[in-house]
């Protein structure tokens, strides 16, 4: 049983230990400057190959303008489930129906052919259910894995993440994989009009409602950002000349993979990384996203328990087990009103820590706040870096993902911090993206159709 190290009261010592999660303004400015340099490297012709933040070109150059009309299909593949959606765009309405299909684990780790055949099969069933089986429809495809795009409808998978390992897909064009599966069936007439990731989807779905939307952010299981860049700054762009803007998929979750964030990383960050499925990769994402936030809190709680600062030095088997502290617990604990520990008590009971005192609960809450605040400040530093780079007087940021959606203070923490960090004269709004990955895919298809009809 550990004993308190010095004579400071318990809470004061916990606060002192949690200082490692506090980013000073000086550190945040340094992070912004490093990210800015990494973005320039990703965009540059000669530096892109060795860059850490890849800044992939999406070939999306036209945002929705609200004049898109018609019926569109969308596919959303980004995790253990995928969705098929049908979306009807009218003058003043936006009807959407969707269905979620499971991807059995033997398909997630099987062949690419089997994966795309399964998707095509579900697509055909969905079209029958919605009486559009005979129609020729345009389709948008949200594919939330690292993609190198060679065109609006051509994307080469860089690596699988999130538990997928289908053979024969890495290094190949995933749109072709889908088209081949549709062709093997021979019963559907679909045109795939575009492929995008969830960050681009968030931007597109918000831009449909708000013409100032120029940045899309994901703060969920992962962390990513895309933004509208001036085409002339994108040295690798080889598409049609003449359009001033181009959407860039930063893949900023990899920021820090070369050690640039080591000066602010803690022993807890290093522990999470070493024990992850991709050590040394996605370092910024591991300091922010929902896949890791709960584990960072757990590691700190374990350390403080062993120091005798929490639970009278008595932990529990569950607390000492990796992954047992879910990120949703962080949101629940921080949702309690000040001085009320109802949710905190429930969480600690689930973790076998029913012997916790009120002082322990205050300590646990402080650890949660320290970790989530740091995450919010890191995302804010990233968004402010983009806003300052873009120099637009007014920008709306479309944001999707479970952490932003469900954490009680994330939005406010971000608003306050970004306001401190942006250059004078830049006005910004944060907007929750409603189902970016579904809606966004349909809008990419709709905008592409609008272009091909010449209805600019």
TrEMBL record:
Q: Which ranges carry the Hexokinase C-terminal domain?
A: 214-447
Enzyme Commission number(s) from the entry: 2.7.1.-
Lineage, top-rank taxon, reads: Eukaryota
Give the signal peptide range: none
Q: Which UniProt keywords apply?
A: ATP-binding, Glycolysis, Kinase, Nucleotide-binding, Transferase
Assigned GO CC terms? cytosol; mitochondrion
**Alphabetical list of SUPFAM superfamilies matching this protein:** Actin-like ATPase domain
Please provide, alphabetically and separated by semicolons, the GO molecular function terms listed in this UniProt record.
Answer: ATP binding; D-glucose binding; fructokinase activity; glucokinase activity
The regions listed as transmembrane in this protein's record are none
What reaction does this enzyme carry out catalytically?
A: D-glucose + ATP = D-glucose 6-phosphate + ADP + H(+); D-fructose + ATP = D-fructose 6-phosphate + ADP + H(+); a D-hexose + ATP = a D-hexose 6-phosphate + ADP + H(+)
Q: In which pathway does it act?
A: Carbohydrate metabolism; hexose metabolism; Carbohydrate degradation; glycolysis; D-glyceraldehyde 3-phosphate and glycerone phosphate from D-glucose: step 1/4
Could you say which protein family the record assigns here?
A: Belongs to the hexokinase family.
Q: What is this protein called?
A: Phosphotransferase
Origin organism is: Papilio xuthus (Asian swallowtail butterfly)
């Amino acid at each position: 049983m550990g004993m308190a190290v010095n004579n400071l009261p318990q809470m004061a010592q916990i606060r002192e230990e949690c200082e490692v999660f506090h980013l000073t303004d000086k550190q945040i400015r340094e992070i912004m400057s490093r990210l800015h340099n990494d973005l320039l490297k990703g965009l540059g012709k000669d530096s892109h190959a060795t860059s850490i933040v890849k800044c992939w070109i999406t070939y999306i150059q036209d945002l929705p303008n609200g004049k898109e009309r018609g019926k569109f299909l969308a596919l959303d593949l980004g995790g253990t489930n995928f969705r098929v959606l049908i979306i009807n765009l009218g003058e003043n309405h936006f009807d959407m129906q969707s269905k979620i299909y499971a991807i059995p684990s033997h398909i997630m780790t099987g062949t690419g052919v089997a994966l795309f055949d399964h998707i095509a099969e579900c697509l055909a069933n969905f079209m029958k259910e919605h009486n559009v089986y005979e129609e020729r429809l345009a389709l948008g495809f949200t594919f939330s894995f690292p993609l190198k795009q060679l065109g609006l409808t051509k994307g080469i998978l860089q690596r699988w993440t999130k538990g997928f390992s289908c053979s024969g897909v890495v290094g190949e064009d995933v749109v072709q994989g889908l088209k081949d599966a549709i062709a093997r069936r021979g019963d559907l007439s679909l045109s795939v009009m575009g492929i995008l990731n969830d960050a681009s989807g968030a931007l597109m779905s918000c831009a449909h409602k708000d013409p100032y939307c120029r940045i899309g952010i994901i703060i969920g299981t992962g962390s990513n950002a895309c933004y509208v860049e001036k085409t002339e700054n994108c040295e690798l762009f080889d598409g049609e000349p003449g359009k001033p803007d181009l959407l860039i998929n930063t893949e900023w979750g990899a920021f820090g993979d070369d050690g640039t964030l080591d000066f602010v990383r803690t022993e807890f960050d290093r522990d999470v990384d070493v024990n992850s499925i991709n050590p040394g990769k996605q370092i910024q994402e591991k300091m922010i996203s929902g896949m890791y936030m709960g584990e960072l809190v757990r590691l700190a709680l374990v350390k403080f328990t062993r120091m005798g600062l929490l639970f009278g030095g008595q932990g529990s088997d569950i607390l000492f087990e990796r992954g047992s502290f879910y990120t949703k617990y962080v949101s629940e604990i921080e949702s309690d009103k000040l001085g009320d520990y109802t949710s905190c008590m429930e969480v600690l009971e689930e973790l076998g820590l029913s012997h916790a005192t009120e002082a322990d609960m205050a300590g646990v809450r402080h650890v949660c706040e320290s970790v989530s605040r740091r995450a919010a400040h890191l995302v804010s530093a990233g968004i402010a870096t983009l806003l300052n780079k873009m120099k637009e007087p007014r920008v709306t940021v479309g944001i999707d993902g479970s952490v932003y959606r469900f954490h009680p203070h994330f939005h406010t923490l971000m608003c306050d911090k970004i306001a401190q960090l942006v250059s004078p004269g830049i006005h910004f709004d944060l907007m929750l993206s409603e189902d970016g990955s579904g809606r966004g895919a349909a809008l990419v298809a709709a905008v592409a159709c609008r272009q091909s009809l010449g209805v600019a």
